[in-house]
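Lab notes, practical 5.
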Amino acid sequence: MNDLTQYRIEELLEGCRAGNRKMQEALYRQTSAVMLAVCMRYVKDRATAEDVLQTGYIKVFQKLQEYRGDGSLEGWIRRIMVNTAIENYRKNLRSINMVPIDDAFDQPATGFDFSRLGMQDLLTIIQKLADGYRLVFNMYAIEGYSHKEIGAALGISEGASKSQLSRARAILREEIIKMEGMDYAKHTG
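Output from the prediction step:
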Protein backbone atom coordinates (compact mmCIF):
# COMPACT_ATOMS: atom_id res chain seq x y z
CA MET A 1 0.00 0.00 0.00
CA ASN A 2 1.02 3.57 -0.53
CA ASP A 3 2.40 5.67 2.28
CA LEU A 4 -0.31 8.31 1.96
CA THR A 5 -0.75 8.52 5.71
CA GLN A 6 1.38 8.91 8.76
CA TYR A 7 -0.09 5.76 10.31
CA ARG A 8 1.20 2.22 10.07
CA ILE A 9 -1.30 -0.40 8.98
CA GLU A 10 -1.41 -1.84 12.51
CA GLU A 11 -2.35 1.58 13.93
CA LEU A 12 -5.02 2.02 11.27
CA LEU A 13 -6.49 -1.40 11.97
CA GLU A 14 -6.55 -0.85 15.71
CA GLY A 15 -8.09 2.61 15.35
CA CYS A 16 -10.68 1.49 12.81
CA ARG A 17 -11.67 -1.49 14.92
CA ALA A 18 -12.17 0.91 17.84
CA GLY A 19 -14.46 3.04 15.66
CA ASN A 20 -12.04 5.99 15.44
CA ARG A 21 -13.36 8.14 12.56
CA LYS A 22 -9.96 9.73 11.93
CA MET A 23 -8.39 6.31 11.42
CA GLN A 24 -11.30 5.19 9.22
CA GLU A 25 -10.82 8.28 7.07
CA ALA A 26 -7.07 7.62 6.85
CA LEU A 27 -7.67 4.01 5.76
CA TYR A 28 -10.24 5.20 3.23
CA ARG A 29 -7.86 7.83 1.81
CA GLN A 30 -5.06 5.30 1.60
CA THR A 31 -7.04 2.64 -0.26
CA SER A 32 -10.02 4.27 -1.98
CA ALA A 33 -8.37 5.17 -5.31
CA VAL A 34 -7.37 1.56 -5.95
CA MET A 35 -10.76 0.28 -4.79
CA LEU A 36 -12.62 2.76 -7.00
CA ALA A 37 -10.70 1.34 -9.97
CA VAL A 38 -11.85 -2.16 -8.94
CA CYS A 39 -15.47 -0.98 -8.72
CA MET A 40 -15.23 0.81 -12.08
CA ARG A 41 -14.45 -2.51 -13.79
CA TYR A 42 -17.74 -3.98 -12.61
CA VAL A 43 -20.15 -1.16 -13.44
CA LYS A 44 -20.92 1.03 -16.43
CA ASP A 45 -20.41 4.49 -14.93
CA ARG A 46 -18.46 6.36 -12.29
CA ALA A 47 -21.50 7.35 -10.20
CA THR A 48 -22.51 3.71 -9.75
CA ALA A 49 -18.89 2.78 -8.99
CA GLU A 50 -18.79 5.46 -6.29
CA ASP A 51 -22.02 4.08 -4.80
CA VAL A 52 -20.56 0.57 -4.77
CA LEU A 53 -17.36 1.94 -3.23
CA GLN A 54 -19.24 3.67 -0.41
CA THR A 55 -21.37 0.60 0.30
CA GLY A 56 -18.21 -1.50 0.24
CA TYR A 57 -16.45 0.70 2.78
CA ILE A 58 -19.44 0.55 5.10
CA LYS A 59 -19.06 -3.25 4.99
CA VAL A 60 -15.29 -2.97 5.48
CA PHE A 61 -15.72 -0.96 8.66
CA GLN A 62 -18.54 -3.19 9.91
CA LYS A 63 -16.56 -6.38 9.27
CA LEU A 64 -13.07 -5.21 10.18
CA GLN A 65 -13.19 -7.33 13.35
CA GLU A 66 -13.29 -10.36 11.04
CA TYR A 67 -10.01 -9.48 9.29
CA ARG A 68 -7.46 -11.94 10.67
CA GLY A 69 -4.39 -10.69 8.82
CA ASP A 70 -4.00 -13.90 6.79
CA GLY A 71 -3.44 -11.88 3.60
CA SER A 72 -2.96 -8.23 2.83
CA LEU A 73 -5.55 -5.79 4.11
CA GLU A 74 -5.83 -4.36 0.60
CA GLY A 75 -6.62 -7.82 -0.77
CA TRP A 76 -9.29 -8.31 1.90
CA ILE A 77 -10.85 -4.93 1.10
CA ARG A 78 -10.69 -5.72 -2.63
CA ARG A 79 -12.64 -8.95 -2.08
CA ILE A 80 -15.34 -7.00 -0.25
CA MET A 81 -15.52 -4.48 -3.12
CA VAL A 82 -15.88 -7.25 -5.72
CA ASN A 83 -18.60 -8.95 -3.66
CA THR A 84 -20.38 -5.61 -3.18
CA ALA A 85 -20.28 -4.96 -6.93
CA ILE A 86 -21.77 -8.41 -7.56
CA GLU A 87 -24.49 -7.79 -4.95
CA ASN A 88 -25.23 -4.42 -6.57
CA TYR A 89 -25.59 -6.12 -9.93
CA ARG A 90 -27.92 -8.78 -8.52
CA LYS A 91 -30.04 -6.16 -6.76
CA ASN A 92 -30.44 -3.99 -9.85
CA LEU A 93 -30.84 -6.70 -12.46
CA ARG A 94 -32.78 -9.84 -11.77
CA SER A 95 -31.05 -11.92 -14.43
CA ILE A 96 -27.81 -12.02 -16.31
CA ASN A 97 -27.92 -11.84 -20.10
CA MET A 98 -26.60 -15.22 -21.08
CA VAL A 99 -25.79 -16.58 -24.49
CA PRO A 100 -26.73 -20.19 -25.13
CA ILE A 101 -23.72 -22.41 -24.63
CA ASP A 102 -24.13 -23.69 -28.20
CA ASP A 103 -23.53 -20.14 -29.46
CA ALA A 104 -20.27 -19.78 -27.57
CA PHE A 105 -16.99 -20.44 -29.27
CA ASP A 106 -13.56 -20.86 -27.80
CA GLN A 107 -11.13 -18.06 -28.40
CA PRO A 108 -7.42 -18.55 -27.92
CA ALA A 109 -6.16 -16.77 -24.83
CA THR A 110 -2.78 -16.02 -26.41
CA GLY A 111 -1.61 -13.97 -29.34
CA PHE A 112 -2.93 -10.69 -28.06
CA ASP A 113 -0.77 -7.88 -26.73
CA PHE A 114 -2.60 -5.86 -24.07
CA SER A 115 0.56 -3.95 -23.15
CA ARG A 116 0.16 -1.50 -26.04
CA LEU A 117 -3.28 -0.51 -24.82
CA GLY A 118 -3.63 2.15 -22.12
CA MET A 119 -5.37 1.19 -18.88
CA GLN A 120 -8.09 3.79 -19.38
CA ASP A 121 -8.76 2.47 -22.89
CA LEU A 122 -9.02 -1.07 -21.57
CA LEU A 123 -11.36 0.02 -18.76
CA THR A 124 -13.56 1.82 -21.29
CA ILE A 125 -13.79 -1.30 -23.44
CA ILE A 126 -14.56 -3.53 -20.46
CA GLN A 127 -17.29 -1.15 -19.29
CA LYS A 128 -18.98 -1.44 -22.71
CA LEU A 129 -19.43 -5.20 -22.31
CA ALA A 130 -22.92 -6.50 -21.52
CA ASP A 131 -23.33 -6.97 -17.77
CA GLY A 132 -23.01 -10.75 -17.72
CA TYR A 133 -19.91 -10.72 -19.91
CA ARG A 134 -18.31 -7.93 -17.85
CA LEU A 135 -18.86 -9.66 -14.51
CA VAL A 136 -17.55 -13.03 -15.66
CA PHE A 137 -14.56 -11.48 -17.45
CA ASN A 138 -13.58 -9.43 -14.39
CA MET A 139 -14.06 -12.26 -11.95
CA TYR A 140 -12.11 -14.77 -14.05
CA ALA A 141 -9.44 -12.78 -15.88
CA ILE A 142 -8.72 -10.09 -13.32
CA GLU A 143 -9.76 -11.37 -9.90
CA GLY A 144 -8.76 -15.00 -10.49
CA TYR A 145 -12.03 -16.74 -9.60
CA SER A 146 -12.60 -20.22 -11.04
CA HIS A 147 -15.61 -20.91 -13.26
CA LYS A 148 -17.08 -22.95 -10.40
CA GLU A 149 -16.74 -19.97 -8.02
CA ILE A 150 -18.19 -17.60 -10.61
CA GLY A 151 -21.11 -19.93 -11.18
CA ALA A 152 -21.83 -20.09 -7.45
CA ALA A 153 -21.53 -16.31 -7.00
CA LEU A 154 -23.73 -15.45 -9.97
CA GLY A 155 -26.14 -18.39 -9.82
CA ILE A 156 -25.12 -19.81 -13.21
CA SER A 157 -23.52 -23.05 -14.39
CA GLU A 158 -19.79 -23.48 -14.94
CA GLY A 159 -20.54 -23.94 -18.64
CA ALA A 160 -22.43 -20.68 -18.77
CA SER A 161 -19.49 -18.95 -17.07
CA LYS A 162 -17.09 -20.39 -19.66
CA SER A 163 -19.45 -19.33 -22.43
CA GLN A 164 -19.68 -15.78 -21.10
CA LEU A 165 -15.90 -15.55 -20.78
CA SER A 166 -15.35 -16.82 -24.30
CA ARG A 167 -17.77 -14.31 -25.76
CA ALA A 168 -16.36 -11.47 -23.63
CA ARG A 169 -12.84 -12.22 -24.89
CA ALA A 170 -14.05 -12.23 -28.49
CA ILE A 171 -15.82 -8.90 -28.07
CA LEU A 172 -12.83 -7.36 -26.28
CA ARG A 173 -10.51 -8.58 -29.03
CA GLU A 174 -12.72 -7.03 -31.71
CA GLU A 175 -13.00 -3.73 -29.86
CA ILE A 176 -9.26 -3.50 -29.23
CA ILE A 177 -8.48 -4.24 -32.85
CA LYS A 178 -10.91 -1.49 -33.86
CA MET A 179 -9.21 0.90 -31.42
CA GLU A 180 -5.83 0.07 -32.90
CA GLY A 181 -7.18 0.96 -36.33
CA MET A 182 -6.75 -2.52 -37.73
CA ASP A 183 -9.12 -4.15 -40.16
CA TYR A 184 -10.60 -7.05 -38.19
CA ALA A 185 -11.34 -9.05 -41.34
CA LYS A 186 -7.60 -9.34 -42.09
CA HIS A 187 -6.98 -11.00 -38.73
CA THR A 188 -9.79 -13.56 -38.70
CA GLY A 189 -8.98 -15.51 -41.76
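Observations recorded by the TA: Residues 9-92 form a domain with the Rna Polymerase Sigma Factor; Chain: A fold (CATH 1.10.1740.10). Residues 95-113, 183-189 have pLDDT under 50 and may be disordered.
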